[in-house]
Design goal:
alpha/beta, 4-stranded antiparallel beta sheet, 8-stranded mixed beta sheet, 23% strand
């Protein structure tokens, strides 16, 4: 069952396209959108939330285009989980959670606080009186208040230390609600998402089962993201090249160590060993030393 779908979506800010013809499905089991800052993943997430209208292409909610959907039902079924800084600093925690409810419901707020591992006594606190991890849990509780089917999470652990990140990930993994996770960190997406899509310069360069992408990436960019995750006892991550995307051909070729003349032509998406990849040299990435 497809919860949300992007169908050849182009998104622009002014005259500048930032997402270029992306098509993907948000399906049960957790879906990751992975990429560095500027890759277009947050812009695409805003379109999935109905906050941006595609320049071309369309967003589908179930079997209906989002522009024709029952937006009241959509807002109930699909909830964003932003970073902890999204909380109103003037509002007490209980009021912030209850804001999404039709009427004040102290018992429901207390249930939600317990569900995210917080003491109901904290409802009288304001955000500055809580730790970063506690604030993030409040944001999750607020999103859960209306009983959504899907949470769209935008870097929900990026400002937290490692131990707090682990607790938040455990919390999210234990929820029954489906997830669309936006992140640059492959170690995070591996915990929460069965399927992942890797974005570079507004294009999907690799898609498939998350385990497959983590264990044996077939695109040089996915491999670079994987290698940037520190490993306890391992070597420090190599410094990545920061050249801007190429304007013609493969956008990653300005950074790619495997780029050849063929890469001056745009690589069409194709099936390679259980995933879809847009790379002329995907087989060499898989069989080379870094791909094993």
């Amino acid at each position: 069952m497809t919860l949300l779908r992007a169908d050849n979506v182009v998104l622009s800010y002014g005259k500048r396209p930032v997402v270029h013809g992306v098509s993907l499905d948000v399906v049960p089991g957790g879906v990751g959108l992975i990429g560095e800052s500027g890759s277009g993943k947050t812009t695409l997430a805003r379109a999935f939330l109905g906050l941006l209208t595609p320049t071309s292409g369309s967003i589908w909610y179930g079997t209906h285009p989002l522009k024709n959907a029952d937006m009241k039902a959509f807002r109930r079924d699909v909830q964003p989980v932003f970073q902890a800084e999204s909380l109103d600093p003037r509002m007490r925690v209980g009021a912030s959670i209850a804001e999404a409810l039709k009427k004040p419901a102290q018992e429901r707020v207390a249930e939600l606080m317990k569900q995210v591992g917080l003491s109901p006594d904290l409802v009288i606190r304001r955000p500055h009186e809580l730790s970063g991890g506690q604030r993030q849990r409040v944001v999750i509780a607020r999103a859960l208040a209306v009983g959504p089917k899907l949470l769209i999470l935008d870097e929900p652990t990026s400002a937290l230390d490692v131990t707090v990140q682990a607790r938040i990930l455990d919390l999210l993994a234990g929820l029954d609600t489906e997830r669309l996770l936006i992140t640059h960190n492959l170690s995070v997406v591996g915990r929460l998402c069965r399927t992942s899509h890797v974005l570079f310069a507004g294009r999907v360069v690799e898609s498939g089962p998350t385990d497959t992408l983590l264990e044996r990436p077939s695109h040089p960019y996915t491999r670079a993201l994987r290698d940037a995750v520190p490993v306890l006892g391992g070597e420090p991550p190599a410094a990545g090249r920061s050249a801007p995307p190429a304007e013609t051909g493969c956008p990653f070729r300005s950074r790619c160590p495997l780029a050849v003349q063929e890469c001056e032509q745009p690589p069409p998406p194709r099936e390679v060993e259980g995933r879809t990849v847009a790379c002329h040299r995907a087989e060499e990435v898989l069989t080379g030393p870094a791909g094993r």
